[in-house]
Each structure stands twice: as structure tokens, then as C-alpha cells.
């Protein structure tokens, strides 16, 4: 994934250089100096966010105001894109917005709400906000116990909990929880 963003950023850099090609020599040299310090992958990520995702969210607000459940689904997709772009803070905010709507509309224990909470927790952990991620997990994980043992949201929340434990330095506790999850899944579904 990062290679794609680096290529996009490098393409943007090349385009800027081409625009300055006919300018006095000092301007392209100054641009090269600035670009040498810039992370072109981050430039590409920010461009996608600014030029596409912000507009997509605004379009969802305008176009689906009378269909809030569909709007939440679309916002969840935007949050996933933020996550895939390596923008965990934006992803966490998006998942939180979706989870809040779904909590009001369907209840806190609804699988759709729990899926959004899982996305929010994962994004918070990716952003290094372990305490906030752990708080989301502590509230959502017990509710996910009603889901099938191999449900991706239930398993994802369990994995996120082990990640939070490890991030807090409890690697042995994380290992034990992973082993218990593995054992329960093997017992219920066999090796695959």
C-alpha cells in the first residue's frame, strides 16, 4: 500500500518540478530542497483525504440525510479508507460517528454497532491511544460474547484486547488471551 502512496507523492513532486521548469533556476532548486524534506507518501495521503474523502463525507451528508442508516454505512466505508491510508485518527473519528448513530438506532449490542466499535478501537490503538482504545474494547467485548465464536467482530475485539494488553507491557497476558482464543476456536471449529 505504501508503495502506491509513495508513487502518487513522487508523481506530484514530478508535476511540481515540471511546472517550475521554465522558471529561474533558484525556484526549482528551492522546490527540490523542500521536497527532499517532505514525505511524499504523506503528501499523497493528505491529498486523497482533502480532495476525495472530505468531499465524499459532505456528499453523504447532503445526499443521504433522509437515509441515516445508509449514510452510516457509507461513513463506515470512508473510515475504512482512512484506516487503509494510515490515518488512524481520522478513521477513529469516523468509526465513532458511525457507532454513535448505530447505538441510537439499533442499540449498543447490535452487531453493526459492535463492528463500528471494533473499527474505532483498532484505529485508536493504531494511533497509539491505548487507553481510549482499551475503554472501547472493555465496553464492547462483553456485548460481543452473544455473537458466534468465530464472528469476525467478536474475534477482532478479542485480538484488539490482546493488542492493548501488549501495548501496556503485559505481553504474557496478551499471549495467554491469544492462546485461549485459539484453543476455543480450534475446539469449536477444528483446525483449518
Description:
This protein has about 190 residues and is an all-alpha fold. About 80% of the residues lie in helices and about 0% in strands. The chain has 9 helices and no strands. It has helices at about 1-20, 25-35, 40-65, 70-85, 90-105, 110-125, 130-145, 150-165, 170-190. α5 runs antiparallel to α6, α6 packs antiparallel against α7 and α7 runs antiparallel to α8 (about 150-165). The longest helix has 24 residues, at about 40-65. The protein is globular. The mean pLDDT is about 85.
Give structural attributes.
mainly alpha; 9 helices; 192 residues
Order of helices and strands: HHHHHHHHH
By secondary-structure content and strand pairing, the structural class works out as mainly alpha
Beta-strand content estimate: under 5%
- Major sheet: none
Task: Count helical runs.
Answer: 9
Radius of gyration: 21 Å
Q: What is the helix content?
A: over 70%
The N- to C-terminal Cα distance equals: 28 Å
| Residue runs with pLDDT of under 50 for 5 or more positions | none
Query: What is the tally of beta strands?
Result: 0
- Which descriptor suits the 3D outline? globular
Estimate the mean pLDDT confidence: 85
